[in-house]
């Protein structure tokens, strides 16, 4: 069954008009053509449409004739969905994505499954359940690389915690050297994410000299709308480092302001995680 036919079938079962089904995602005239098979909907809009209408992704994709659409575009969107679900700690969505991949005919099916299984392991704190082969495959993608691309550094951002501290530090510095002058804002966002994870590891390992070096590296990445979120997290980390060097209440107050901002913009789980990190560091310092 084609995507258009299947969307129409699901819409009618839900008892919705085309306009109520699509909301503001795409125009009614364009959607009408999608249902008739006259236009092709993008992978991003398709998944947003399914999520808006509470359609199970795995069930929907299982019914599609995969030869009727671009697997490559869907693979890229699946990777984006995995990343988003990781930051939202959305286990339900990740499990739906996993079932979608299992039912698919993606060329990189095994690699996509490795990605989603690794993310699930991180969130559920069951990384020890990953096989030695899986961990080796993840590590080999990055440590031996001389040149990285956007996809590679995105994977590394999500799976840094599978490596030892020394390997992570080496790879992080390699990536920063390659992309520090990049003008691509999405790449800058990923590089900052890697630096943030690495600084957190440094604090955990009491590697404060390395942490300060990474803080200075992060300041070389411009502050833009897309990097504001990352810069907020970096301010928390920098103030924690200042507190470690000189335990003054002002540094903790600065951290609390950023945590409150994260909560206000809807990053509830992340704000809780940051608060926990702050509390742990106060105990350690005192």
UniProtKB/TrEMBL annotation:
It comes from the Bacteria. Gene3D superfamilies: 1.25.40.400, lambda repressor-like DNA-binding domains. GO terms for molecular function: DNA binding. Signal peptide: none annotated. InterPro entries: Cro/C1-type_HTH (IPR001387), HTH-type_regulator_Rgg (IPR053163), Lambda_DNA-bd_dom_sf (IPR010982), Transcription_activator_Rgg_C (IPR010057). Residues 118-275 form the HTH-type transcriptional regulator Rgg C-terminal domain. This is HTH-type transcriptional regulator Rgg C-terminal domain-containing protein. It comes from Lactobacillus apis.
């Amino acid at each position: 069954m084609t995507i258009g036919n299947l969307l129409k079938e699901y819409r009618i079962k839900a008892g919705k008009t085309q306009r109520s089904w699509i909301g503001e995602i795409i125009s009614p005239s364009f959607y009408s053509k999608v249902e008739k098979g006259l236009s092709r909907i993008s992978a991003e809009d398709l998944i947003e449409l399914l999520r808006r209408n509470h359609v199970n992704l795995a069930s929907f994709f299982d019914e599609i004739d995969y030869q009727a659409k671009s697997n490559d575009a869907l693979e890229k969107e699946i990777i984006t969905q995995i990343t988003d679900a990781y930051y939202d700690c959305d286990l339900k969505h990740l499990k739906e994505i996993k079932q979608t991949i299992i039912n698919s005919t993606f060329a990189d099916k095994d690699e996509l499954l490795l990605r989603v299984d690794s993310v699930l392991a991180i969130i559920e704190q069951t990384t020890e359940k990953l096989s030695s082969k899986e961990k080796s495959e993840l590590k080999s993608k990055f440590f031996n690389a001389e040149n990285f691309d956007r996809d590679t550094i995105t994977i590394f951002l999500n799976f840094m915690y599978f490596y030892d501290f020394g390997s992570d530090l080496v790879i992080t510095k390699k990536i920063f050297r390659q992309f520090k002058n990049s003008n691509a804002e999405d790449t800058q966002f990923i590089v900052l994410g890697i630096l943030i994870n690495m600084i957190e590891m440094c604090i955990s390992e009491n590697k404060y000299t390395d942490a300060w070096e990474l803080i200075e590296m992060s300041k070389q990445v411009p502050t833009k709308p897309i990097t504001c979120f990352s810069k907020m997290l970096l301010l928390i980390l920098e103030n924690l480092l200042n507190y470690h060097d000189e335990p003054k209440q002002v540094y903790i107050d600065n951290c609390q302001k950023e945590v409150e901002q994260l909560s206000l913009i809807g990053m509830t789980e992340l704000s809780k995680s940051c608060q926990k990190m702050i509390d742990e560091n106060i105990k350690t310092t005192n």
